[in-house]
Amino acid sequence: MHLVRAAIDDWGDAALLLGDELDVELVAPLSGGRVSLHLTLRETFHGGPEWVRDGVEPLRGALRAGEVELFHSVERVDAASAALQLRLARAVGLAAFDDTVRTLVLVPPGPGGRFRVDPAVLAGASSEPSPLEVPVDLVFDGAAPAVVVRSEAGVRAGGPPAPEVRVELPLDRRIDVSVPAAGAGRPPFGIALLPAPR
């Protein structure tokens, strides 16, 4: 499992949990109470890939641990992807982070696990027009661990624009990736990938 913090323009911050078998420990900031989750991706006969908790319980709708609501929404970000977005009921810490988060994104390896940042979704979330004109995909390459950021508009991370940028894992520093903006004179769309603080 790899853990990356992502700060995405017009969308917000998230912890990207990369892999198809994930052990996550959530920590309540005030009480220090902990909840451990073992999440795995399994194939289903009719529904394709599905994330399950502790090998049995599918991740759907709100998720509770006893009396505590962990996530108030669990949604597949893209129907063509196995990536899953978990919106936390409140900001909690991850045992692997020295910080709190409100959104976890589970991203399995390969093209079926892409996390798509869609301009249509961004447009609905903000009153300001998004500089993003075409989707940006973040794909986890598990063979040679890397996050691959790609877009038809081109992406860049310090060098010239290219169809994709590979960010090798584990991260040891912040990597800023940008996508050219739609329209002249507008700032580019940015994604910052940061190592998990420890």
- Kindly estimate the percentage of residues that lie in beta strands according to DSSP: over 45%
| Outline | globular
User: Average pLDDT across residues?
Assistant: 83
Distance between the termini: 16 Å
Structural class: mainly beta
**H/E element sequence:** EEEEEEEEEEEHEEEEE
Count of β-strands: 16
Instruction: Report on the biggest sheet.
Output: 12 strands, mixed
SS field, number of helical segments: 1
The percent range for helix content is: under 10%
As a whole number of angstroms, the C-alpha radius of gyration is 17 Å
Regions with pLDDT < 50 over 5+ consecutive residues?
A: none
The gist of it:
With about 200 residues, the protein is mainly beta. It is built from one helix and 16 strands.
What does this structure look like?
- A hairpin with a 3-residue loop joins β1 and β2.
- The chain has one helix and 16 strands.
- Helix content is 4%, strand content 55%.
- With 198 residues, the protein is mostly beta strands.
List the helices and strands and how they pair.
Layout: E1 2-8, E2 12-18, E3 21-27, E4 34-44, E5 48-53, E6 57-58, E7 63-65, E8 68-76, E9 84-94, E10 100-107, E11 115-117, H1 119-125, E12 136-141, E13 146-155, E14 162-168, E15 175-179, E16 189-195
Parallel strand pairs: 2-10
Antiparallel strand pairs: 1-2, 1-16, 3-4, 3-9, 4-5, 5-6, 7-8, 8-9, 9-10, 11-12, 12-13, 13-14, 15-16
